[in-house]
Amino acid sequence: MFDPDKLTYLDKSVDRRVCFITGGNSGLGFFTVLHLYLHGYIVYIAGRSKQRVDSAIRQLKDEALVRRAKETPEVLQFRHLGELKFIELDLSKLRSVEHAVKQFKTREKHLNLLILNAGIMAVPYSVTKDGFEIQLQINYVSHFLIADRLIGMMDTSDDVRDPRIIYLSSVGHRFADFHFNLSWEFNHMPNIVFTWFRYGMAKTAGIHMVKSLAKRHPKVLCVAVHPGFVMNTNLFSHFTRLPFFGFLFWVLFQLFGSFFGVTNEEGSYSTLRCLEEDLSTEKDNGKYFATFGVEQKPSSVATNENYADESWAWTVSELSRRGYETDRTS
Ligand SMILES: NC(=O)c1ccc[n+]([C@@H]2O[C@H](COP(=O)([O-])OP(=O)(O)OC[C@H]3O[C@@H](n4cnc5c(N)ncnc54)[C@H](OP(=O)(O)O)[C@@H]3O)[C@@H](O)[C@H]2O)c1
């Protein structure tokens, strides 16, 4: 099993590493941030609610104190806490993405770690103000725009140590193997079936993005992960909050989780494993890691280079139509 203690503990006065993470206030993102903070990273938690992120920051600081209280002074002298900061970001609005990126750039000169973690799953069909199906925009398109805007802070200078991008995909990306076409919104009934195709498509496009970024930016290690089945995060709340059926779904998810699931903290391990020093751009760029960070081969559609190129071209063109110019190199 992966052990977060194996990761390097940083002293920010000599090695200041900056992380930008989306959705770090809840679920497995919360524990990802906790371990980064315990390991000395400067973490920008990009979220849509300042109140929720501030409350998470308070809980993270308390939890860090509890964990450090279990260590001896000898151990603690080599373990320095990082910093936790809030950046406002609503992934359902491209304008908010641009604004968050601008804010970040006024505060930092370089970026070591970009974790594209936020997501929604299996919600009813709807279209954002930018005109994308909502799961596609939040899980993929907005993250594509963030990566495009921030990667320049990661790979231009040799001062940026060990730059990495980690995208939270899902085993659910495999739903897109039935049919992959980003222009097809799967707006059909019943939602409980077709919503999974929309989720799968977004998470497959995310894996394509990672592969394409790895090709275009060989100095930045870009990987995708599936965190495992983490049944106690807010990801399932659309189902568990349904009137009457919500409780049944909750019971079902708990049962499923008790056989196949991992805890919220263990859900962060696949992401954290991708920070280990044995991974390198030469041998691991574009790879996919599943529960506890075990390397896996993603679906055939996700692996297919032609599909990856098509996803890139489609996204660049759709963003351009909306006034957002991104990397057009093929
Ligand atoms: N849980 C699992 O079993 C599982 C399995 C496979 C993959 N994943 C992936 O893992 C990632 C984390 O999921 P989780 O289980 O930890 O779920 P979660 O607890 O619901 O966390 C999702 C995070 O995304 C944020 N978010 C949602 N919509 C947003 C928006 N419009 N703008 C900015 N942030 C937004 C949420 O912020 P708010 O608090 O403001 O809503 C929250 O911080 C997701 O990408 C998910 O698809 C999870």
UniProtKB/TrEMBL annotation:
Signal peptide: none annotated. It comes from the Eukaryota. The keyword Transmembrane applies. The chain crosses the membrane at residues 20-44, 244-263. Keywords: Membrane, NADP, Oxidoreductase, Transmembrane, Transmembrane helix. GO terms for molecular function: oxidoreductase activity. Gene3D superfamilies: NAD(P)-binding Rossmann-like Domain (3.40.50.720). PANTHER family: RETINOL DEHYDROGENASE (PTHR24320), WW DOMAIN-CONTAINING OXIDOREDUCTASE (PTHR24320:SF282). Belongs to the short-chain dehydrogenases/reductases (SDR) family. This is DEKNAAC101427. It comes from Brettanomyces naardenensis.
